[in-house]
Amino acid sequence: MNVMRRHRTRPDADLAARALAGDRAAMGALLDRHYDLMFRVAFRALGRRDAAEDVAQDVCVKLARGLANWSREGRFETWLYRVVLNAAHDAGRRLARDGRLRDEWAREPRETVTGSDDDRADTMWRAVRRLPPAQAEAITLVYGEGLSHAEAAATMGCATATVGYHVHAARTRLREMMEEEAA
Amino acid sequence: MTDELDLLRGAKVSKPDAQARARALEAGLAEFDTVRTKGSAAARRPKGIATLWSDLMHRLNTATSPNAIAAVLVVGLAVPTAVLVMRDDPSMPQIELGQSTDDVAEVTSRPDAPDAQLHQGPLIVDREAVTQAPAPAEPEATPAPRMAVPETAPNVLRRAQESEGIELRATPSVQAIRPSENGLVLLPHPTETYANDVSAGRLSVLEDPISTFSIDVDTASYARLRRELEAGRMPPPEMVRTEEVVNAFDYAYPAPDSRDTPFRATATLTDSPFTPGARLLHIGIKGYDLPPEARPPANLVFLVDMSGSMDAPDKLPLLVRSLRLLLAELRPQDRVAIVGYAGAAGTILPSTPASDRQAIEAALDGLMAGGGTAGAAGIEAAYALAEEAFIEDGANRVILATDGDFNVGTSSPDALEDLIAEKRETGIGLTVLGFGTGNLRDDTMQALAQAGDGIAAYIDTLSEARHVLGLEAQGALYTIASDVKLQVEFNPAAIAEYRLLGYETRALATRDFDDDRVDAGEIGAGHEVTAIYELYPEEDRPLRYGEAATVEAADAPEELGYLQIRHKRPGEDESRLIATPIRLAEAVPFAQTSDDLRFSVAAAGFAERLRGTETGRETDWEALEALARAALGDDPDGRRRQLADLIDLAGALDR
Question: What is the pTM of this model?
Answer without folding.
Answer: 0.50
